[in-house]
Structures are given as structure tokens and as C-alpha cells.
Amino acid sequence: MIRTFADIDKSELRGMVRRVDNLGRILVPKEYRRELDLEKDAKIEIAILEDGMLIRPLRADGSGRLAARRIDSLGRINIPVAARRMLEVAFHDELEIFLLRDGMFIRKKIE
After folding, report:
1. What are phi and psi of 94, to 5 degrees?
2. CATH assignment of 13-108, given 3.40.50.2000, 1.10.10.10, 3.40.1550.20, 3.40.605.10?
3. Contacts of 61 by beta carbon, 8 Å cutoff, 6+ apart
4. What are the φ and ψ backbone dihedral angles of 5, each rounded to 5 degrees?
5. 62 strand-pairing partners
6. Which of 72, 86, 95, 101 has minimal CB crowding within 10 Å?
7. Alpha-carbon Rg of the chain, whole angstroms?
């Protein structure tokens, strides 16, 4: 079970950096959306971990640790206020997005 970034198998890890906009959204790279089959209005679940968020398509049992969200028509995810507070993410902060086998791991960019 993934609890921190350290728990992730990094052998095939790819990452990108995106900024949080002034409405608390982040744009998910198009190639990541394609690989995870996340089209417009796709439902996702967000789990807050110790050092980031795990985002993946909503499972049939709806067992995400935070309310389910949708990807908007431009490929953006609205990051919940609770997640932004816990992870100390402010508007215009840079976040790293890592593609995983079944989702994405997002964390505040480490300087």
C-alpha cells in the first residue's frame, strides 16, 4: 500500500511539473490522461498521503479517502481545500505529477 513517495516503485517513473492556478486547479498532462483513460468528466478519487496525493480513476466501490472529483473539459482537477491545507499548497505553487501504473502521485515540488 502506498503511503508516501518512498513507497512508489520508481523504476519506470515519469514526472512533470505544473502550477496550481488561482482557483486551486491543476492541469493533468494530456498524455497522462490518455494512458489512464481519463476523459472529460471522468470520475477520480483523491487520497491524501503523508507527502502528496494519490489520484486514480474512481473504483467501483468508491473507496477513495476524499470525495470523488471529476476532470473538467480542459483536463484540470480541482484540488480539494483540505488537501491543499494538509500539504501546504498555495496558489501558483509548483507541483510534481508522477505517472503510476494505475494513477498519479502529486506532491509539492521539492526545491
Report:
1. -90, 135
2. 3.40.1550.20
3. none
4. -60, -30
5. none
6. 101
7. 13
At 36 the three-state DSSP class reads coil
Q: Cell digits for 8?
A: 512508489
User: Per residue in 47-102, pLDDT tens?
Assistant: 889 899 999 988 766 555 556 789 999 999 999 898 899 999 999 999 999 999 88
Asked if 104 and 55 touch (Cβ cutoff 8 Å), the reply is: yes
What does the domain layout of the chain look like in residue ranges? Answer: 13-108
Strand extents, DSSP E, 1-111: 14-19, 25-27, 43-48, 53-57, 69-70, 76-78, 94-99, 104-108
Q: Can you tell me the mean pLDDT for 29-39?
A: 92
* Among 87, 109, 106, 90, CA closest to 98: 106
